[in-house]
Write a structure and sequence with these properties.
Layout: H1 7-21, E1 34-39, H2 50-68, E2 72-74, H3 84-93, H4 97-114, H5 130-146, E3 149-159, E4 164-166, E5 171-172, E6 175-176, E7 184-193, H6 199-204, H7 214-224, E8 226-236, E9 242-247, E10 258-262, H8 266-272, H9 276-286, H10 292-297, E11 302-310, E12 317-323, E13 334-337, H11 343-352, E14 360-362, E15 379-381, H12 392-405, E16 409-415, E17 420-421, E18 423-424, E19 434-437, E20 441-444, H13 471-474, E21 475-477, E22 484-487, E23 491-492, H14 495-498, H15 501-504, H16 517-522, E24 525-531, H17 537-551, E25 561-567, E26 570-572, E27 575-576, H18 587-594, H19 596-605, E28 613-614, H20 617-639, H21 653-676, H22 679-695, H23 701-718, H24 723-732, H25 749-752, E29 756-763, E30 766-774, H26 779-788, H27 790-796, E31 801-807, E32 811-816
Parallel strand pairs: 1-2, 1-24, 10-12, 24-25, 26-28, 29-32
Antiparallel strand pairs: 3-4, 3-7, 5-6, 7-17, 8-9, 8-11, 8-16, 10-13, 11-12, 14-15, 18-23, 19-20, 19-22, 21-22, 26-27, 29-30, 31-32
Helix pairs in contact: 1-24, 2-19, 3-4, 8-9, 18-19, 19-20, 21-22, 21-23, 22-23, 23-24
The structure holds one RNA strand.
RNA sequence: GCCGGGGUGGCGGAACUGGUAGACGCGCUGGAUUCAAAAUCCAGUUUCUUCGGAAGUGUCGGUUCGAUUCCGACCCUCGGUACCA
């Protein structure tokens, strides 16, 4: 054993051993319990950032711990390789996206290996290869046949100067990020997946996910947004057409004083032809961002269309307004407005002088003052004709029945969730496998012709996707009739690739089918780890895909991820590390200076995984200092030669104490690594043990034997977190096998037993004394001992004792008067 | 705007089921070692204090023998918001 801790040597040696012994190769083996641990794969942006280091270390610690539990662990790694940054880099550096991406992958793979992450690299995949994306093309054509995909027009952000579609993040304050032109909305035909057909399952199956954080399930449930309400039809004046609206508050129907439609609603567009003011408003709305956030925070504006609608029960005429807060692609593109009982409608009515009619009265003592705000609580109906006096709840049924009889409405379950638009007008993505024939319409590419390969030798200059101007790509014969036809030149949303990669990792080499029996062996993923920012979209799409694949017979079970851990972000100076803020810390430099084990130890120690992690150079040094201390202490111990066997029955009180601390630490670390995933407290427990061990200077034979035990346990307990140094320590302590193959130690219960325990004595809830009592003492004798304590006496002397509360193993609280 | 988190010493954090607030680490202070420094080791470190204690976990209020933990209202901050991944 070397005198000094030299991480560069140690880490290179151990990593070489793992590679040569094929340690992390995962082979299906029914004799062992399987454990599939997956951390969200990275976008190959160029270099690893601290968020990656944290994410992948968490996964590796869990994987190594489970391996030490004797499980057959699968931990794969791959690349979420399609996406916008490759196109941006291509424009900037004049490199094709493919070359840029593959270079990045090669560099980042090396960085991951240097961190000592135990991946089965045989299973590596990159989503930008035809071997991968051909299978999602295949699935899409299957879904086409099943009617689960369809085409409709939808709005995109359009920059009229660059002549290109912009992502939401490329729109800054309503303007193009590159040329600062005001962005316009443009309606173009796009492919959609019917995720709403699975809305109910996606909601109900959340109940199966006991291993998911409650907050993530809540966010998903709210996102899906199931509601029960009524669809109500309003007849239009001078027209056969009618206007349908959906409401969850039919009890307020009698208070409707106007209707609002989206500016681009056909009704509004038609009215605008003869109304210049409305036309100006429609044009103005066209220059709005498409994001929900922008819509909701924008000032609420509207213009009367001049069209009147007939109230389905009273027959009264109410005006129809065009409003910027009504979304065309959402529900029916129209809403009924009840200013007295909805705050947004109230503010709109105040602004434009529309009528406010109260139809709900408070049932309890809630305040209702319609001169200041809407009354949005439920209550008792008033001013509602035949429904007067009913409760909000009772009126739901009564009004539903009335409307059904009049054929003017029906009950409906509605979801906030919208169908998934998967078309992107970009180059660097999976080509959508559809051919548009002038006679046959949209025709899926036949299986034999898959994959539709994305040409990689292209020039990207920011003026639109290069494949849109490549006849050799898009000119094809219709697979059905042979006529001249055109390929889709749009590509898939990159969430498409990341929605099923977890399954493909089980059989990435299969060239015959999307998945095989190995998927059924390994799935579901036992532990999934990734950023909280993916709580809704990615995780919902992956759950959706799992159900689609299940219905194709490709996988078993309803859900892909049994347990989920959502990690927090890595911050510096309180803000997220990012290139634009210039506050990034390069993991490469960190590893070169201190080694992978220090990088791993610091990221696990600085905060629990679910919280954000504040970067600190000084704390990194502290982590390195601890490893140095551990190394030197072990070295000094080993240097004095081998130890005799431990004689448990023949130890001094101090040594018994020390052994108890060893097994208390082991108890805590086992729970923290296996159940709680609080690696910071596990490390703290090991540090505490080390402090106790270094304080003990018993150099007798038994003293050295206990020290040997403590150091062995420390090497094992830290092995999942800092695997390189622990391998070297374990060997130095006299073992021949690699620590990665050692089983997690058992707890020696006999070492944990204590004769006396310390209890605290409170008087009126304040700490006043500490007493030692026999571990098996009964409540009465504990109480008596507490009352007799001289410190406690000072605070109870001469006062009336009202109550004494004894919490076994913890405390005694003496409640006195005055 | 809406949905979901978070707020505890100078700093990162601990307190797991309502029971000793501040484990562990960083920083700082003092000491040892050194010609000197670095490194290392030892001791101390919430604030105030009349040295008895008192106050204290974003703010205000409540429940309880006892609240960082439960309930209500509010403030600040972070993530998501459907074309960033």
């Amino acid at each position: 054993m070397q005198q000094e801790y030299n991480p560069a040597d140690i880490e290179a040696n151990v990593q070489q051993y793992w590679q040569q012994a094929d340690t992390f190769r995962a082979v299906e083996d029914n004799s062992k319990e399987k454990y599939y641990c997956l951390a969200m794969f990275p976008y190959p942006s160029g270099q690893l950032h601290m968020g990656h280091v944290r994410n992948y270390t968490i996964g590796d610690v869990i994987s190594r711990y489970q391996r030490m539990q004797g499980k057959n662990v699968l931990q794969p790694m791959g690349w979420d390789a399609f996406g916008l940054p490759a196109e941006n880099a291509a424009i900037k550096n004049k490199v094709p996206p493919a070359a840029w991406t593959y270079d990045n992958i090669d560099y980042m793979r090396g960085q991951l290996q240097r961190l000592g992450l135990g991946y089965d690299w045989e299973r590596e995949l990159a989503t930008c290869t035809p071997e991968y994306y051909r299978w999602e093309q295949w699935l899409f054509t299957r879904l086409f046949e099943k009617g689960l995909v369809y085409k409709k027009t939808a709005a995109v952000n359009w920059c009229p100067v660059d002549n290109t579609v912009l992502a939401n993040e490329q729109v800054i304050d309503g303007c193009c990020w590159r040329c600062d032109t005001v962005v316009e909305k443009r309606e173009i035909p796009q492919w959609f997946m019917k995720i709403t057909d699975y809305a109910e399952q996606l909601l109900d199956d959340l109940d199966q996910l006991d291993g998911w954080p409650e907050q993530v399930k809540t966010m998903q449930a709210n996102w899906i947004g199931r509601s029960e309400g009524l669809q109500i039809e309003f007849d239009l004046e001078n027209s056969d057409a009618n206007l349908a609206v959906y409401t969850t508050r039919p009890d307020t129907l009698m208070g409707v004083t106007y209707l609002a439609v989206a500016a681009e609603h056909p009704l509004s567009l038609k009215a605008a032809e003869s109304n210049p003011e409305l036309q100006a408003f429609v044009d103005q709305c066209r220059k709005m961002e498409t994001s929900e956030e922008a819509m909701e925070t924008a000032e609420k504006k509207g213009v009367a269309t001049g069209v009147m609608a007939t109230h389905p029960i009273t027959g009264e005429q109410v005006p129809v307004w065009a409003a910027n807060f009504v979304l065309m692609g959402y529900g029916t593109g129209a809403v009924m407005s009840v200013p007295a009982h909805d705050q947004r409608d109230y503010e709109f009515a105040q602004k434009y002088g529309l009528a406010i009619k109260q139809v709900i009265a408070p049932a309890g003592k809630e305040s209702c003052d319609l001169s200041t705000a809407a009354f949005t609580e439920k209550g008792q109906l008033t001013n509602s004709g035949q429904f007067d006096g009913l409760s909000s709840q009772a009126s739901f049924d009564a009004i539903a029945k009335e409307l059904e009889q009049r054929n003017k409405g029906e009950r409906q379950v509605n979801y906030r969730l919208r169908d998934w638009g998967v078309s992107r007008q970009r180059y660097w993505g999976t080509p959508i496998p559809i051919i548009n024939c002038p006679d046959c319409g949209a025709v899926p590419v036949p299986e034999a012709d898959l994959p539709v390969r994305l040409p990689e030798d292209v020039i990207v200059d920011g003026s639109g996707s290069p494949i849109k101007s490549m006849p050799e790509f898009y000119q094809v014969a219709c697979p059905k009739c042979g006529a001249d036809a055109e390929r889709e030149t749009d590509t898939f949303d990159t969430f498409f690739e990341s929605s099923w990669y977890y399954a493909r990792f089980t059989c990435p080499d299969n060239t015959e089918s999307m998945l095989d029996e190995r998927a059924k062996h390994w799935l579901p993923v036992d532990q999934y780890i990734g950023g909280i920012e993916h709580a809704v979209l990615h995780l919902l799409y992956a759950r959706f895909f799992h159900k689609l694949m299940r219905d194709e017979g490709l996988v078993d079970g309803d859900e892909p991820f049994k347990n989920l851990l959502t990690q927090g972000m890595v911050l510096k100076d309180g803000v997220k590390m990012s290139k634009s803020k210039g506050n990034t810390v390069d993991p490469q430099a960190l590893i070169e200076q201190y080694g992978a084990d220090t990088a791993r130890l610091f990221t696990m120690f600085a905060a629990p995984p679910e919280q954000s992690l504040e970067w600190s150079d000084k704390a990194v040094e502290g982590s390195n200092r601890f490893l140095n201390r551990l190394w030197r202490f072990t070295q000094a111990h080993v240097e004095k030669g081998s130890c005799v066997a431990l004689d448990k029955g023949n130890l001094s009180d101090d040594l018994k104490d020390l052994r108890r601390q060893i097994y208390q630490a082991l108890t805590k670390v086992s729970d923290d690594l296996g159940r709680r995933h609080t690696f910071n407290t596990a490390i703290a427990a090991v540090m505490e043990l080390m402090n106790a061990v270094t304080k003990n200077s018993d150099d007798t034979e038994q003293g050295r034997a206990v020290r040997q035990e403590a150091l062995e346990m420390t090497a094992l307990m830290l092995a999942p977190i800092t695997p390189h140094i622990c391998d070297a320590l374990w060997r130095a302590l006299g073992h021949d096998e690699a620590v990665v193959n050692v089983r997690w130690p058992d707890i020696d219960e006999s070492a944990l037993k204590q004769d006396k325990v310390e209890l605290i004595v409170q008087v009126n809830g304040k700490l006043r004394a500490k007493i030692k009592v026999n571990a098996d003492a009964d409540k009465d004798s504990i109480e008596a001992q507490a009352l007799a304590d001289e410190h406690a006496q000072k605070f109870i002397d001469g006062k009336e004792i009202r109550k004494v509360i004894v919490v076994p193993g913890r405390l005694i609280n003496i409640v006195v008067a005055g």
